[in-house]
Fold:
Amino acid sequence: MAEGERGAALVPAVAAGAWVSVPPDWRRLYEEACERAEAAEARAEELKQAALAARCDAGGWRWQFESARRKRLAA
Structure:
């Protein structure tokens, strides 16, 4: 690969039937990377909210368990 062809992709030439070196579409690659990053951030936020909800539920169950234990020991 020549020095100037670094990062270029090989694609078939339609008319010639040979492989031609075409530079990558950097704007499209950047936009795809941004979309993936935004999707990952949204998923991270969903997981963060789910973890918070799970901790709240666990705290409620723990309180209920301890309350039942106190009542049982008092009886």
The helical segments are 26-74. The chain is about 65% helix and 10% strand.
